[in-house]
Amino acid sequence: MHDSLFNRIEAKRDDLVALIQDLIRFPTVNPPGEAYTPCAEYLGDRLKARGFEVSYHRAEGEPGDSARYPRTNVVARREGTKPGPCVHFNGHIDVVAAGQGWTVDPFAAVVRDGKVYGRGACDMKGGLAAAIIAVEALLEENPDFAGALEVSGTVDEESGGYGGVGYLAKQGFFSRPRVDHVIIPEPLNVDRVCIGHRGVWWAEVETHGRIAHGSMPFLGDCAVRHMGAFLQRIETELYPALAQKRTEMPVVPEGARQSTLNINSIHGGLSEDFDGLPAPLVPDSCRLVLDRRYLIEEDPEVVKQEIIDLLEGLKHDREGFDYALREVLAFQPTMTDPEAPVVRAVSAAIEEVLGRPAEQVVSPGTYDQKHIVRVGQLENCIAYGPGILDLAHQPDEYVGIDDMVASAKVMAAATLALLGEAGDR
Ligand SMILES: [Zn+2]
């Protein structure tokens, strides 16, 4: 059905590999937000040469932005020759730190056995490169298309997206009538359409005590023991309750198809840089950070109230128990209608390119879709891209070249279908 388009993409295989290699070689590590501007300009220059109108948007005033580490985003738009819908591809250019355990240079973009290795190869410079190749092939094939094509390279996804998609969404870049369909080429596997993600609520709990000499603990009040009592209630009351909360969301992996809670950190008493010298003190403070992931069926207020209820219960039952609760981060779950045009178009294209039905999934963790849906008020958004999700953030991260090529075909075919839906806005 799209033989000529697909042949054109096949012919761009080397171009695609060179593009992802160039992207990996910008060490866009976040934090702190290294090399954002040259990477954004690289994308802008390339798309400008293909007739796109290119603009740069620095997220001044957002967390992390500074003269040394500017939060530079790039948006490129090309109008068709007739009015019609706009299809937008959004990729984050930031990557997490390389970490230990690599057998290749994480920023050299080594090609070996049909794979490109490097930090961000999978998450998500491979997806961004495939989207650009898809768009470029489309423009050569259909120069007289109706509507508009957009590609954005955004920052800070790994740290919440406030300086990236969140910032652009506040300016209207992800709202109608400017944009109709958004595809985020995150690494969800080449045959899966990701329609949303679970919600997240991070909070810090501090228990208070009273400092005293460690040899006479009865004269003080131990904040760590109070925290222990809180953990005990989490174990005996909250975990069993969370395990009962199942979802209709098709979350992968299967284990995340329920409410979950992680204890991210706990600290009480002597400071973390304790050097081994004794300091006989009863701790007067203990802090714990929790990471609660919740379901579309759950009310975010209830998610918070469950924790408050445990803490208030202890306040009632346990002598001297006192606490403070601070919200660190909160994002509600999102789930695009499985019948939405962008879901249908990408699913049909997957079936055409790969010869097997597309799987619809929901991500256990959040990504930039939250800003597009909540701030931009655009429901018609999905994640689709090459790369194996489990490899993201790991040492020796890679993306398969065949998968990149296949996903570029899927994105191009889906875009054609979406641009043809001018009457269906
Ligand atoms: Zn990502």
How does this structure look, described?
There is one protein chain. The protein is of the alpha/beta class and 425 residues long. The chain has 10 helices and 16 strands. It has helices spanning 3-11, 13-24, 36-48, 121-141, 165-170, 223-243, 300-317, 341-354, 369-374, 401-419, and strands at 53-58, 72-79, 82-92, 111-112, 115-117, 146-154, 181-184, 192-197, 199-208, 260-268, 285-294, 323-331, 334-335, 359-363, 381-383, 398-400. The strands form 4 sheets. Strands 1-2-6-3-7-15 form a 6-stranded mixed beta sheet. The longest helix has 21 residues, at 121-141. Bound molecules: zinc ion (ZN). Residues 92, 123-124, 157, 186, 367 line the site of zinc ion.
Structural class, by secondary structure, is: alpha/beta
Bound molecules: zinc ion
Order of the strands making up the biggest sheet: 1-2-6-3-7-15
C-alpha geometry: elongated
Instruction: Count the DSSP helices.
Output: 10
The end-to-end distance, rounded to whole angstroms, is 24 Å
Give me the strand/helix succession.
HHHEEEEEHEHEEEHEEHEEHEHEEH
Estimate what percentage of residues fall within beta strands: 15-25%
Helix content: 25-40%
Low-confidence stretches: 421-425
Largest sheet: 6 strands, mixed
Mean pLDDT: 95
Rg for CA atoms: 24 Å
Q: What is the number of beta strands?
A: 16
